[in-house]
Each structure stands twice: as structure tokens, then as C-alpha cells.
Automatic annotation (TrEMBL), chains A, B:
This is GntR family transcriptional repressor for pyruvate dehydrogenase complex. The keyword NADP does not apply. Pfam families: FCD (PF07729), GntR (PF00392). It comes from the Bacteria.
């Protein structure tokens, strides 16, 4: 296997990112083929392949066998982007992730309430209902739906950075604690989600803030007791 | 060039991460050679190479030509881990990053003051002095030193997740706004850093909280005016 030099592939990867940004390529767009890319990036084809692999590892590109290379829908957010895999004390890490949520999410809920469109509210209600259905049917779907609920609020808050960051925090908590059930918490969460939904629907920022604060304190306290 | 199948390399990368975590390999440790890794991961050597490349792209491993593969000091935090490169409105993104800092950092400063050791305080003072020296000599070093100052406070706060996250937020702000000078802000920042340092030294959480809040509001306001 031919060895591609590290720095050249790094440079090619950087140029490819610039190309994507300059051409405003959107999620799902297909990149030009290898020959064309080699021309554009002014490197050999093996370096193009290496650069593509690096950007695929960062979830910026997605290689579909036999079809081509596409802009990934994961928006360049790598799996475990903040390196939490390597923190050994997962109980402490979870506690610390909840502290971040406690600082960020009440304001997220307040802003979501302030900026919500009717369409946003409908989408939020759908997620809340799907979570309740998952509770009722005893499925595990509510875990992912819960991440989705908080991600939707982050999107509604209008803060672009939180829109990228909060799903990472949530996903980390669920991954680290895949055995955490929080069963006793379901009735509590059901009420909390409804309270948040109502406040957003009423465009009531203050109540949305308080409802989210109470919700996160409750989930976090329940985690502390089980661990 | 032999094509390694995607899913197999993914699986091998995942197993390699598990191996690193289980064996508690620390930053700078050298991995076993390719032959041994192929045995451990139960895949061929070309798949080992592919897995190593992926983990290198995620800053988990570092390949040193002619020497071997090492655990990277970047702790698995990829370059631009949250995909900010692809957000086009950089002014809005900067504003949103400051909002995150405003929510997180006053508490970071308060906790840093509460938990500070004498050693921590000395290190903090060294950074503050180096920033002042950079201001005085008109060098650009203060930009990186400022990231370091806030990273040091994050470490002192004891929150493991913030210790990973805050440097990413800071680094993003400096990268996006590499032309932002904030010259008029230097006297202000000089005072603010001294105020934070004093509060931490006095183990005065309340003053540390307030000093940080004022500092971030001032920097953020100055950015808004220049942009």
C-alpha cells in the first residue's frame, strides 16, 4: 500500500474543506470525482483519497460505495467530538454534563418560547406525544426522542453554536448511561415535557425557563440517587 | 491501492478505542506494532492501518513516521469538533459562542476560586503576567495565552466536561475572528484578568463570578461594536 505523506493529505483535506465552504455545498451534495478533485486540490489521486478518508472520519464527508462521495448530514460533528470516551470516571462525567445542561438549557427554553413559530410548536408536540407513547408501550425509543426534543428546542433558540453543542451533550449522557432507566422519573418527565410545551406554545419565556430548570434538576437528582 | 471495506475498519477502530480505554493507555503511550494489533483486533493489517488513520483523524492517535503510533495529546478532540467551519454566518456564530461563554464561565470562575490550590494560583498568575507582557510588547501571543487562561480556570473548576468543551469554544472564537484586534479592550482586559486572579487567590467565589461576568460582557460588547 502506497504511503501518502501526512502533511500533504492534511493540506489537501484543508483545501477540500475550503472548497466545500466556498461553493456552499449542502448536505447530500455529491463531490466531483477523484480526477477532478485531484485537479482542484493540486495533488495526486492517492492524496485525494487520503484527504477524503480524513474528512469522512470527521463526519464531514460520507463515502457511498459505488456511488460517490457526499457531504455528510452529520455536519462535521465527529462521533464523540469532545473525547469523552477517554474520561474514566463516567459517574463524575455525567454529573458534570448535567451541570452544563443546567447552565445552558433554561435559557434555551426561554429563547425557544420567545422565537417559536406555530410550525415549531406542532413539531415539538409531536415529539412530546411520541415520548409519551414510548413510555406507555414500554419501548426504548423515548431515549432518542428525548435527545430530539432538547435538540429541537436548541434549534428553536436560534443559537447556532448551541444547536451543534447540545445534541452532543445529550447523546453523551445517554451513551455513557445506557443502563440508566430512570423509571421512577417517567411520570415526572411526562409532566415536565408538557409544562415546557405549554410554556413554549404560550410564548411564555419565564415559565419555559423555570420548567426546564426544574426538569433538569429532577433528572439530574434522579441520576445521582441511582448511581 | 487495496480498498478496505468501510464497516470492518469502523469496527476495528471501535475495538481499538476499547483496547485503549481498557488498558488505560495514557497520552504519549506507544501502541503495539501492526502485527500485534492485527492479532488483538482480529482483523488484517490493512484494516489495522485504516482504523489507525481514522483515529488519527479524530486526534485520538498520532502516527510518527518511522517511530510508531502513539496516544495523541489532543485527547480525542478533533479539529473543529462541532463543525463550526460550516456555519456561514460567522458574525452570528461568534455572538452565539459568546452567549455560551456568558452562561458557563461565571460559574467556572466561582468554582475555580472555591477549589484553587496555591499551585493553581501561581500558574494562573504566570499566565496573567505573560498576557500583560504580550500587550506591552505588542506581540500576538496574548491571543493563545487568553485561551490558556480560560482553559486553566476550566480545569480548576473540576468539571471534566467543561475542561474539554471551553477550550473548543475559545479556540473557535479566536479562529473565526483572527482579524479582531480588540485593541481598545486591552486596558479593560488587563484589569479584568487581575480582578479574576485576585478573587481566585482570595478563594472568593462571588467576586470571581462577578468579575468573569463583567469580563465576558465587555469582550462580547466590544466584538459587537467592531463587527
Amino acid at each position: 500500500m502506497k504511503k501518502t505523506s501526512q502533511p500533504l493529505a492534511d493540506l489537501a483535506a484543508e483545501r477540500l474543506v475550503d472548497y466545500i465552504v466556498e461553493h456552499q455545498l449542502e448536505t447530500g451534495s455529491r463531490l466531483p470525482n477523484e480526477y477532478v478533485l485531484a485537479d482542484i486540490l493540486e495533488v495526486g489521486r492517492s492524496t485525494v483519497r487520503e484527504a477524503v478518508r480524513r474528512l469522512a472520519a470527521r463526519n464531514i464527508l460520507e463515502v457511498r460505495q459505488g456511488s460517490g462521495t457526499y457531504i455528510s448530514g452529520k455536519k462535521g460533528v465527529a462521533d464523540d467530538p469532545l473525547g469523552f470516551t477517554f474520561i474514566k470516571d463516567t459517574t463524575k462525567l455525567t454529573h458534570d454534563l448535567f451541570e452544563i445542561r443546567l447552565l445552558l438549557e433554561p435559557r434555551v427554553a426561554a429563547k425557544a418560547a420567545q422565537y417559536a413559530t406555530d410550525q415549531d410548536c406542532l413539531l415539538l408536540e409531536e415529539i412530546v406525544q411520541a415520548i409519551e407513547q414510548s413510555y406507555d408501550e414500554g419501548t426504548e425509543e423515548h431515549v432518542q426522542l428525548d435527545v430530539q426534543l432538547h435538540a429541537q428546542l436548541a434549534k428553536m433558540s436560534g443559537n447556532l453554536a448551541l444547536d451543534s453543542l447540545l445534541p452532543v451533550i445529550h447523546q453523551s449522557i445517554s451513551l455513557i448511561n445506557s443502563d440508566f432507566q430512570g423509571k421512577d422519573l417517567r411520570e415526572d418527565s411526562r409532566l415536565a415535557h408538557r409544562r415546557i410545551l405549554e410554556a413554549v406554545r404560550d410564548r411564555d419565556s419565564v415559565n419555559a425557563y423555570d420548567a426546564m430548570l426544574r426538569h433538569i434538576l429532577a433528572v439530574s437528582a434522579s441520576f445521582e440517587m441511582e448511581s
